[in-house]
Amino acid sequence: MRIIAGTARSLPLKTIEGMDTRPTTDRIKETLFNMLQNDVPGCYFLDLFAGSGQIGLEAVSRGARYAVFVENNKKACACIEDNIHFTKFDRETKLLQSDVISAIRSMEGKYRFDVIFMDPPYRHEYEKEVLECLKDSSILKEDTLIVVEASLDTSFDYLNELGFTLKKLKTYKTNVHAFITKAE
C-alpha cells in the first residue's frame, strides 16, 4: 500500500495486521481519485472509518488543504499516526480517535467539509446511520460530496427520504463507490 500521486507519491504506508480493516486496493484508489480529481485540490477532506488513513493521506498528497481522520480502533489510530508522521502531513491533518457519530457531533461548528469519504464495515448499515447524522449537520456544505465505499449488495434506496441524491455509482468486482450529495 502506497501513496499513488502528488507530493508524497510512492511513499509506502503501514496497515494494521489482521482482518480488522480492508485497505482499498491501489487500483480502486486510483480510479476513485481520478473521479475526484477536480474536487480534491484545496478541499477540506473527512476520512471516516479511516483504517490506515490512506484515503485521506492520498487526498492531502494530491492537494487537499486539510484532512480529518476518524477511527475508533486503537491499533488503527496508531497506524494512522505513523503514516501521518512518515508522510510529513502533521500540519495538514488531524486524527480523532472516536466512533464516527460522536466525532461528527464534536466537529459541529468547527469544520465544514468539501469531500467526505467513508468505508464502514460492510453489511452493518453504518453508512445509513452516518448519513442520518449528516443530513442536518453543519459540517456539510451545500455542495459537499460524500463517497461511500460499500459491498456490492448495499442498497441506497433510502437516500431521498434523508434529503440526499445518488449522483453516481461506480461498481467494481468486489465493491462499489456511491457518490452522494444533498438533494437540490
TrEMBL record:
SUPFAM superfamilies: S-adenosyl-L-methionine-dependent methyltransferases (SSF53335). InterPro entries: DNA_methylase_N6_adenine_CS, RNA_MeTrfase_RsmD, SAM-dependent_MTases_sf. Its EC number is 2.1.1.171. It is an enzyme of class 2 (transferase). GO terms for molecular function: 16S rRNA (guanine(966)-N(2))-methyltransferase activity; nucleic acid binding. The keyword Metal-binding does not apply. Pfam families: Cons_hypoth95. Keywords: Methyltransferase, Transferase. PANTHER family: METHYLTRANSFERASE. This is 16S rRNA (Guanine(966)-N(2))-methyltransferase RsmD. It comes from Roseburia inulinivorans.
